[in-house]
């Protein structure tokens, strides 16, 4: 998705959570996984939480863990977009393979 839509910090955060829908993460874990600066992360993450794209999944002591919100319309749309792109890429690769076969 990053290759087709761009490498914006918000999109990188969303993409990380989309790639890991069954797991929840602390903010620190996301920052480390993305190699993003704290300043950049904290500039963009609050909007994602405010609009319900990312939500608190549970609390452990004072730590909050976050997960993608699968019911959010944007998340549903991005998942559909990922499926479509993957399907198109597979079709292109299949066509290329058939061209190369004697």
Summarize it.
The protein has 102 residues and is an alpha+beta fold. It is 63% helix and 13% strand. A hairpin with a 2-residue loop joins β1 (54-60) and β2.
Core attributes:
single chain, 102 residues, alpha+beta, two-stranded antiparallel sheet, 63% helix, elongated
What does it look like?
With 102 residues, the chain is of the alpha+beta class. The protein is built from five helices and two strands. It has one domain: Arc Repressor Mutant, subunit A (Orthogonal Bundle), CATH 1.10.10. Strands 1-2 form a two-stranded antiparallel ribbon. The longest helix has 28 residues.
The DSSP helix count reads 5
CATH topology: Arc Repressor Mutant, subunit A
What is the number of E strands?
Answer: 2
Query: How many distinct domains?
Result: 1
* Largest sheet composition: 2 strands, antiparallel
SSE string, helix = H, strand = E?
HHHHEEH
> What is the residue-averaged pLDDT?
91
CATH class assignment? Mainly Alpha
Provide the structure class.
Answer: alpha+beta
Q: What's the arrangement of strands in the largest beta sheet?
A: 1-2
Rg (CA only): 17 Å
Principal-axes shape call: elongated
* CATH H-level homologous superfamily name: Winged helix-like DNA-binding domain superfamily/Winged helix DNA-binding domain
Q: Helicity, in percent?
A: 55-70%
Q: Could you list the spans in which at least 5 consecutive residues all have pLDDT below 50?
A: none
């Amino acid at each position: 998705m990053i290759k087709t839509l761009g490498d914006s910090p918000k999109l990188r955060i969303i993409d990380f959570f989309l790639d890991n829908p069954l797991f929840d993460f602390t903010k620190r874990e996301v920052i480390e996984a993305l190699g993003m600066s704290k300043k950049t992360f904290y500039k963009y993450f609050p909007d994602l939480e405010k609009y319900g794209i990312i939500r608190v999944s549970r609390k452990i002591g004072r730590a909050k863990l976050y997960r993608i919100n699968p019911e959010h319309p944007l998340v549903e749309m991005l998942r559909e977009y990922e499926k479509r792109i993957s399907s198109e890429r597979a079709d292109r690769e299949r066509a290329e393979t058939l061209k190369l076969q004697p």
